[in-house]
């Protein structure tokens, strides 16, 4: 017997009063028990009465469960509890089951610590009443002279400062007491100087021993509190807590004088907007009033993001030479994958046994042609590779510069105690010259991007060495200035989870170091290769891989990459540099390749925000957007299968994105959506954003749900009206295939006849009355999927045209109402190489797909 409960045991649910609490139990019967057997399911809780009591849970008809096997049949038990008369506070529940013939109940919780927790909240306070905002968060009285208030949109923000004595760089703790009305929280805790992890908790803070760089709290009123420590005025701040859960500001004053430690508080109704407002306010405090979201991404940077990249680290680790690089690129070429940018990671530099840099040049015996000769050869053999980058650390190498090398004759260095060992780093007066000389050399050799590691290095310099710890700003200023001058925006920050570096990010300008990319690579052939590939595909960030040569999982890579059109005047040899047969891949080597990257960063869904999916039986839910189409990723982080539920409100901002079409003839059905499940290849329709969907995801697996608003059009056939409902899913053979959709609309036949990029016309059908035309513009090729439902008519025929070419691989699954159109490589290539003279003024080449739908 398999049993699933939602909300899951061990989880915490926040339920505003007036909102009902729904509890569902799914039970998969053993083969030994047939359905007539009586099965009693009870809720055991203190929600209803003042003492613990049992409530019978009624069985309901089984609804559709996505991912449920044909041999599985779950019984569903559901109870809805009104919260209207329940007092504010904490409650718990568990579930017990008894079958006819059993003497005892089977409990889902073996002890009280495994129960599910529920907090019933009162009606939210009015945020417009801004009386003593500080008192709404802290129990302790804080001197108003130390508080600076600001209104950021609908979010109240304020900065709290506290004077700190000069203490030879040793830690100082400032206790601000308990957090008022704290229900649950999530925070970013430093696992080490290099990495952060999310940590969740309830009731009170529990962060005694590790630095925390961000806290998001949900209060009993329903408000969200965002807390962000600052690094400024020579003080590095982070959060910790005392034994009673009181908030402690943990301060390192690296000044030789008294200074001020600060942190920012935000209070609002939306956790994402509240956090964003805090970040904006920090910029204002630091004098960066003109820093806005950077939407003006220049062409070079855009290319970096939208190509698939390669990093050598996990494939080679230690020393790596010229031949290894060619081996890696030849390996991808052999399977038809074009790498857009290449990152040469650790192992190319000349260093001593103490891990200190000796020269700018690469190891001679490993790079006989030098960087310049090697990169020239690479671009001849692999002309589609536009950028070649190299790795180094902030100090040059892990332990700085070799004091006996030529570099020490040019740049002054000092001995520094770092993590209980002696290292040598360049003094700040010479670091600008160092980076200028280093990057000037790299640029002259054909290097066009850098990855700068060990960004948190200065935090590891021993307390008390304040002079050396203060050097971090000079280093980062030098890095930012020179990387922009020599490489534009093509700089990647790695191991950058340091209060200093994060502050630099928040107070930065519009260049790449102000928005660092942390390590984001994966191996396609790894056991969890697809698991990570799917996550990165919807993340909104770059996608780069670190495969061992000739060890690839091609089906994973194909789902990340899409072919796009090009001009005929672009020489085929400039793309397809190999004569090898690439029939094993669905990708064309004669057309450009890119990834499908969402327009913004992915967000944790609200139901996942305060839950640790590695410890409780809930799916990790991550959402993003591709124009008007939503994407919801579901990851099972457990070692057993999970049955969970979601609704479309998990996709942040769904009501604002999909309800703006008001064409009288062709409309969106407001609140009606078609869903496509990437792994299960299933479709599903929901009538509103709050309609629940049940899904099973196997252990350590994932699902990606494409959420497309349904359009409809009314037509006429044989004097009878009919309605066609359609929703584009995009490229259903790609992880983030909806990103391929640029636009979609119903069109008239006259528009269809004039909307092709060549002069061929489609012959009109004999019966024009029963035809509907639909046009989709896409960025690239693959298997196109649509939800298609003729509603009150019968689908007679569906034709698909790529431009003006009638396509053959068109299938319609009447049960799923899924129309799929699969392109062969020949279709892509014949369509994709356009006539440049005719389309000279078109900035972006688009794939145009036309549907001709005939209804009887």
From TrEMBL:
- The superkingdom listed in its UniProt entry is Eukaryota
Q: Name one Pfam family in it.
A: Raffinose_syn
Return the InterPro entries for the record: Aldolase_TIM (IPR013785), GH (IPR017853), Glycosyl_hydrolases_36 (IPR008811)
User: What UniProt keywords are attached to this protein's entry?
Assistant: Carbohydrate metabolism
Q: Which reaction does it catalyse?
A: alpha-D-galactosyl-(1->3)-1D-myo-inositol + sucrose = raffinose + myo-inositol; Hydrolysis of terminal, non-reducing alpha-D-galactose residues in alpha-D-galactosides, including galactose oligosaccharides, galactomannans and galactolipids
Region Disordered, as annotated, extends over 568-589
A single GO molecular function term of this UniProt record:
alpha-galactosidase activity
Return the similarity comment: Belongs to the glycosyl hydrolases 36 family.
Report what the protein is called: 1970_t:CDS:1
What is the native source organism of this protein? Dentiscutata erythropus
């Amino acid at each position: 017997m398999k049993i699933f409960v939602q909300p899951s045991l061990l989880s915490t649910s926040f339920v505003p009063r007036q909102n009902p609490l729904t509890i569902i139990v799914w039970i998969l019967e053993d083969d030994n028990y047939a359905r007539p057997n009586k099965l009693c399911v009870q809720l055991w809780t203190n929600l209803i009465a003042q003492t613990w009591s049992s409530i019978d849970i009624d069985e309901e008809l089984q609804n559709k469960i996505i991912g449920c096997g044909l041999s599985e049949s779950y019984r569903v038990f559901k109870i809805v509890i009104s919260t209207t008369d329940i007092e504010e506070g904490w409650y718990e529940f568990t579930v017990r089951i008894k079958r006819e013939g059993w003497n005892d109940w089977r409990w889902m919780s073996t002890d009280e610590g495994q129960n599910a927790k529920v907090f019933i909240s009162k009606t939210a306070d009015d945020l417009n009443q801004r009386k003593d905002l500080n008192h709404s968060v802290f129990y302790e009285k804080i001197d108003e002279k130390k508080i600076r208030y600001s209104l950021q949109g609908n979010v109240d923000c304020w900065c709290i400062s506290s004077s700190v004595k000069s203490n030879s760089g040793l830690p100082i703790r400032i206790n601000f007491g308990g957090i008022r009305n704290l229900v649950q929280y999530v925070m970013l805790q430093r696992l080490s100087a290099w990495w952060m992890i999310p940590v969740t908790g309830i009731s009170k803070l529990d962060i005694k021993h590790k630095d925390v760089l961000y806290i998001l709290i949900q209060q009993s009123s329903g408000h969200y509190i965002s807390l962000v420590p600052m690094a400024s005025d020579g003080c590095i701040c982070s959060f910790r807590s005392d034994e009673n859960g009181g908030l402690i500001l943990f301060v390192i004053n690296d000044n030789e004088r008294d200074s001020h430690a600060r942190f920012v508080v935000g209070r609002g109704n939306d956790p994402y907007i509240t956090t964003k407002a805090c970040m904006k306010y920090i910029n204002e405090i630091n004098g960066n009033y003109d820093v806005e979201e950077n939407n003006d991404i220049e062409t070079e940077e855009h290319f970096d993001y939208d190509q698939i990249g390669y990093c050598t680290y996990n494939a080679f680790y230690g020393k790596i030479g010229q031949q290894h690089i060619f081996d890696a690129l030849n390996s991808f070429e052999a399977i038809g994958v074009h790498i857009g940018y290449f990152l040469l990671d650790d192992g190319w530099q000349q260093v001593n046994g103490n891990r200190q840099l000796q020269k700018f040049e690469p190891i001679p015996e490993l790079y006989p042609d030098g960087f310049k000769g090697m990169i020239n050869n690479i671009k001849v053999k692999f002309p589609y590779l536009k950028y070649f980058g190299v790795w180094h650390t902030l100090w040059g190498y892990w332990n700085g510069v070799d004091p006996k090398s030529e570099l020490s004759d040019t740049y002054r260095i000092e001995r520094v105690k770092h993590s209980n060992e002696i290292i040598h780093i360049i003094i700040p007066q010479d670091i600008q010259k160092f980076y200028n000389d280093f990057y000037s050399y790299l640029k002259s050799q054909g290097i066009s991007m850098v990855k700068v590691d060990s960004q948190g290095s200065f935090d590891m310099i021993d307390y008390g060495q304040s002079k050396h710890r203060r050097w971090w700003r000079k280093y980062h200023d030098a890095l930012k200035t020179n990387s922009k001058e020599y490489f534009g925006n093509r700089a990647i920050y790695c191991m950058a989870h340091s209060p200093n570096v994060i502050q630099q990010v928040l107070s930065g300008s519009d260049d790449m170091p102000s928005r660092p990319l942390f390590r984001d690579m994966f191996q396609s052939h790894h056991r969890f290769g697809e698991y990570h590939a799917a996550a990165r595909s919807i993340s909104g960030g770059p996608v780069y891989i670190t495969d061992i040569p000739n060890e690839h999982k091609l089906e994973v890579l194909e789902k990340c990459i899409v072919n796009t059109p090009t001009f005929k005047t672009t020489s085929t040899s400039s793309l397809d540099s190999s004569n090898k047969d690439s029939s094993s891949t669905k990708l064309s080597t004669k057309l450009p390749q890119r990834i499908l990257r969402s327009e913004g960063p992915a967000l944790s869904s609200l139901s996942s925000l305060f839950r640790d999916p590695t410890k409780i039986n809930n799916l990790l839910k991550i959402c993003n957007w591709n124009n008007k189409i939503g994407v919801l990723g579901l990851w099972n982080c457990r070692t057993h299968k999970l049955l969970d539920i979601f609704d479309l409100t998990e996709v942040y901002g769904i009501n604002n994105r999909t309800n703006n079409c008001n064409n009288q003839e062709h409309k969106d059905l407001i609140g009606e959506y078609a869903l496509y499940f990437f792994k299960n290849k299933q479709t599903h329709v929901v009538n509103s954003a709050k309609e629940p969907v049940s899904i099973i995801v196997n252990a350590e697996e994932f699902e990606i749900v494409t959420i497309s608003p349904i359009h409809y059009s009314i037509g006429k056939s044989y004097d009878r009206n009919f309605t066609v409902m359609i929703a584009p899913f995009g490229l259903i053979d790609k992880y983030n295939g909806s990103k391929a959709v640029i636009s979609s609309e119903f069109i008239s036949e006259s528009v269809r006849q004039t909307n092709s990029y060549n002069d061929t016309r489609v012959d009109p059908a004999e019966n024009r009355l029963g035809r509907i035309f639909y046009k989709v513009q896409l960025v690239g090729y693959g298997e196109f999927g649509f939800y298609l439902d003729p509603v009150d008519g019968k689908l007679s025929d569906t034709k698909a045209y790529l431009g003006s070419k009638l396509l053959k691989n068109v299938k319609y699954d009447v049960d799923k109402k899924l129309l799929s159109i699969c392109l062969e490589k020949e279709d892509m290539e014949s369509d994709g190489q356009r006539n440049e003279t005719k389309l000279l003024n078109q900035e972006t080449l688009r794939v145009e797909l036309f549907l001709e739908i005939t209804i009887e």
